[in-house]
Specification:
heterodimer; A: mainly alpha; Arc Repressor Mutant, subunit A; B: mainly alpha; 11 helices
């Protein structure tokens, strides 16, 4: 596994979950350290989904910790509105993505941003191939409808 | 629209770049996971060109078809083709030297010596299996003794491997590649020529010479492999 290449992917995934650059980077590094500390004899195809699972669990822990510390802020973490933080100016697409449920956003992210294969997405999300495919299709259709409403 | 939308999605989910210094610090300090011998060999197998395996399979199929149809000429055809099996093994195992990539590979994570050794072992094992399979198949169709069949298949193969290993040590780049091809073609052609012009050497009475030749060639091949591996160490001194 190319650590450098996967580092960016895992970092993007953590950022997608937490929308906090520094926490995402800390969790990425922690995920890698935990992954190699366990010294599991995984076959090559299981390595990446396992790494994603560690990162996902760490993100959940970080999110819980954050919500416990800031009891007032119990809803979704705020997405950065500052373009310097890296979000694109394509507001229409961003708005359409934001309207999707989190589960659909996750499969879209894994498939089209991190370029993961369907079988990896199945392992990461714990869904069947058919469910992932259906979720992707549904998300794309919803987005298309939203964009058409906006006149695109 | 889907294609455009998928492309745009990448931008919609774009994350700010991670702190480059922190990333570099982490990657430099990150303990490289230890690789087992099995994993190392499997990785090296992945780098090998597929046509080497395809050639082995084709040779096996030829022998199988010959055995099925009981065609006496199968042995001679297979015997003429085995030099190319040897050629494929040698050119594949010394690919880095042929394409002038040795120095680059020496700077890589694994030493050139272990990589060359692993590739030679894999190809040697594959060729051994192929030869073990085609010998009984040719024996069925040739109506000669099993020892004769094995000797007529092995000797051209070993001769090509020896010559090719010597060529790859003495020459580099395209010269080595063309030299190996010429050697394989010469051995193959000589094999066919001797079959028609000096048929008596394939008689059972001469089998002991074939066996002696095979043993000498095996010993020479071990020496050639040793020298080739030794040469990769010399490269390190030249760095």
């Amino acid at each position: 596994m190319d650590i450098e290449e996967q580092y960016d992917k895992i970092y993007r995934y953590c950022y997608f979950k937490l929308y906090d650059k520094h926490t995402a980077q800390d969790i990425t590094q922690e995920a890698f350290l935990r992954f190699y500390k366990q010294k599991l004899s995984l076959d090559k195809s299981s390595e990446l989904p396992y790494l994603y699972t560690i990162a996902k669990n760490l993100c959940v822990d970080a999110f819980r910790k954050k919500t416990y510390e800031n009891a007032d802020d119990l809803e979704q973490p705020k997405k950065s509105a500052d373009p310097s933080e890296g979000w694109t100016n394509n507001l229409a697409i961003r708005a359409a993505v934001a309207k999707l449920p989190n589960e659909e956003q996750e499969v879209l992210f894994l498939r089209y941003v991190n370029d993961e294969s369907l079988s990896y997405i199945c392992r990461i999300t714990g869904l069947s191939r058919f469910s992932v495919y259906r979720r992707l299709k549904k998300a794309l259709n919803t987005m298309k409808k939203e964009l058409m409403k906006e006149g695109f | 629209m889907n294609r455009h939308l998928k492309k745009e999605l990448r931008g919609a989910f774009e994350a700010p770049k991670p702190d480059a210094a922190a990333k570099e610090r982490f990657l430099n300090a990150f303990p490289q996971p230890k690789l087992s011998m099995r994993q190392f060999v499997l990785i090296q197998m992945g780098y090998m060109r597929k046509w080497v395996l395809i050639l082995s399979v084709l040779l096996l199929l030829t022998a199988a078809v010959g055995a099925y149809s009981l065609d006496k000429n199968t042995l001679w055809f297979v015997s003429a083709a085995t030099p190319f099996l040897g050629l494929a093994a040698v050119t594949e195992s010394s690919r880095s030297a042929m394409y002038g990539m040795s120095e680059l590979e020496m700077a890589a994570r694994f030493s050139l010596k272990s990589v060359v050794l692993a590739r030679m072992s894999i190809l040697g094992f594959v060729d051994f299996i192929v030869l073990m399979c085609i010998t009984p198949l040719c024996f069925v169709s040739s109506r000669l003794t099993l020892v004769q069949t094995a000797a007529y298949i092995l000797v051209p193969y070993l001769l090509t491997v020896n010559i090719s290993l010597w060529i790859t040590r003495c020459f580099h780049g395209r010269e080595a590649f063309y030299g190996c091809i010429s050697a394989a073609m010469a051995v193959s052609a000589a094999n066919l020529l001797l079959r028609t012009t000096a048929e008596f050497i394939y008689h059972l009475t001469y089998i002991r010479f074939w066996i002696i030749a095979a043993f000498i060639l095996i010993c020479c091949m071990i020496g050639q492999v040793y020298k080739t591996i030794k040469q990769t160490e010399e490269y390190v001194w030249n760095l």
